[in-house]
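REVIEWER CHECKLIST
Item 1: Sequence provided? yes
Item 2: Single chain? yes
Item 3: Sequence as submitted:
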Amino acid sequence: MKLIAIVGGTKGIGRAVARLLAVRGDRVALLGRDAADLAASAADLAARAPGDPPATAVLDLARPETYDAALDEAIRRLGGLDAVVITAGAFGTQDALEADAAARQRVLSTNFTDTIQFCEVARARLLAGGGGTLCVLGSVAGDRARKPVVLYGATKAGLAYYLQGIDLRHRDAGLRVVLVKPGFVRTGSRETEFGGRTFIDQRLVQVERARRQARELAPRKHARPRDVEDADVPTLDEVANGRGEAWRV
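Item 4: Structure as written out by the authors:
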């Protein structure tokens, strides 16, 4: 059983991860901005898994003053901390972000500066407890420039550089850093209202479909993380235990 705090565990990928962890028997603390969403998600997990109800605490990546209190509450309720999973983030198309300075600032700050600031606090907490896993969701948009998501991709590229660096710096002290790069995932970040219309990058859908077909026709048994076209994706157990870096293209 692992003791895991999830930032962004009330929606999308974070909610799915929280459900899987709770069902398999891990103790979970949900950290997020909206108290009502946290309460609803906690009730959902309690209905799916036996045992104590999940802990919740209000944490807003845009408000660093909430970091310590949220982690304190998570550690108090869980009785310790083995891993911190960060799935929260912000998305915007290039057209939308070029046209809206406020939205541009929100995406740049949330995905890069604010996430790194929180990672620094979480890193210190994990190391103070003897080590643990810091798992962060990035994006393949940060692997190379794409015209529809230049700014969004830049934030993910910078975040990946930071995570690789702290993994090298603190690995021997017991910190395990896992960077998960999903491919196309049908969540709110890909279906976001901008100017009254829903954005779904159909080119990413087509690329993902083609790659899935290729893997089915010619599976590779010994893919390495460097082989991003067909790289192995760790199981949930491997991610929670911090084994390696997860790539998915």
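Item 5: Key structural point noted by reviewer: The mean pLDDT is 81.
Item 6: Recommendation: ____
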